[in-house]
Amino acid sequence: MTRSFSSGRVQALWIAVCVSVLISGCGSGQIELPTGKVSGTITFEGAPVTEGFVNLISIESGRAATMPLGPGGKFTFEQPVVIGPYAVFITPPDSAPPTLENQRPDRPDPKNIPKKYRTDTTTDFKVEVKEGDNDFPLDMKS
Questions:
Q1: How confident is the model at residue 94 (pLDDT cuts 50, 70, 90)?
Q2: Band of the pLDDT at 21, cuts 50, 70, 90?
Q3: Cβ contacts of 69 within 8 Å, gap of 6 or more
Q4: pLDDT reported for residue 101
Q5: Long-range contacts of 106-109 (CB under 8 A, 24+ apart)
Q6: Which of 27, 78, 79, 95 would be 107's cystine partner, CB 3.0–4.6 Å?
Q7: 35 burial type by CB count under 10 A (0-12 exposed, 13-18 middle, 19+ buried)
Q8: Which residues, other chains included, contact 37 with Cβ-Cβ below 8 Å and sequence gap of 6+?
Q9: Is pLDDT above 80 for 19?
Q10: Of 36 and 102, the one with more pLDDT
């Protein structure tokens, strides 16, 4: 006995096969982008800035990463960073949590982080992350 398929059934079967291939993909489906390890030091007129956060934002993709500043103004990003050009900006430490006496605590305004360096649109710190180790000593000026 011979079985015949209508062109509609063959077309539906073909679409199902194509969708299955597209969904399953080839391999893991993730593209591995080249990365580098990023560390450095943030200073203000030569003195270490030990409180606040260093932020990287990719000029090309908008990817962002943040790390707290540590002793000596040092920082090291724990995760590798995709290579490419980045703007670097420094944000002050967070304000204290609200209390019953102070529902809206003031956000710190440290003098050792000039306002120019606090956003990606005003900072003049630009770095190029390359594969391997990257060390960025950055000194803010008033």
A1: confident
A2: very low
A3: 42, 49, 50, 51, 52, 53, 54, 75, 90
A4: 75
A5: 108/51
A6: 95
A7: middle
A8: 76, 77, 80, 81, 132, 133, 134
A9: no
A10: 36
Which residues 6+ apart lie within 8 Å of 33 measured at CB? 82, 83
93 to each of 23, 79, 82, 117, how far by Cα in Å? 44, 21, 26, 14
Q: Answer yes or no: are the C-beta atoms of 89 and 117 closer than 8 Å.
A: yes
pLDDT value for 38: 98
pLDDT band at 31 (very low <50, low <70, confident <90, very high): confident
Q: Is the pLDDT of residue 8 over 80?
A: no
At position 72, the amino acid (one-letter code) is G
Looking at residue 27, its amino acid is: G
